[in-house]
Give the backbone structure.
Amino acid sequence: MPKLPDSVLSCFDVNGDLLPEDVLKYAFHQLLSNNGYVQVVDVPESFDHVAFLKELGDFQPTPTGTVVGDLKPESDMDDIYHAQNRRPLVPHTEGYEFRGLPPRYLSLWCVKPASGAGGETTMLDGRRVLEEFTEEEQRHFRETVYHWKSTEGLARRGVALDAEHPVLEDRGDETVFRFSFNNLVVPEGDELAARLLRRGKEIYDESHVAVRYRARDMIVWDNWRMMHSRNAFDDPTRHLKRVQIAAPVVA
């Protein structure tokens, strides 16, 4: 069964007063570091999502060039795999097909939640998947370069990206984890990569966190660590905003 969110931050304190900005930021950074993601709830109309997120680092354009993007269903995308439709997504990290480093952080915030069932963003700490593999097997994921490709939806919009990267890439004291259940090309005979995708999907389905939105709610996660996905939904008016953040948090 999916877990309930365990990294929730309200913009209001126990007395119903708006948290001071420095307190909100302290709690936010603590949760992000400890848990890999934060769900910010009870967001007032005066909250400036863009200004708050800019303190995490530089925004990074998406493959279509948008910096602050809109996630809304597009009528001509329902028949293929794409973020801009109402179908479910499979577990992945973002930017695996970028030639350079993937975004360090991602954020979504809600303009209009989906009415009815579905539409949750789901997440799982990638460390939970890597626990299944020995140090020697993880070394294979560091030393083997794989081919990664972009989605069918991007191809329909005239964008076709591919890149070659290992699954695990050490950057100083931190590790980049890349994962895509459907867009990592598994070489023939690479049983470890096949097991990574199979067990990654199984563990994700069993243990992910599901985030249900209300208007202005925001989630931010460490994309070098967390896998994410989305549940299917019916409401064509669901609308989220999205940014990708390239730089690390500065303490």
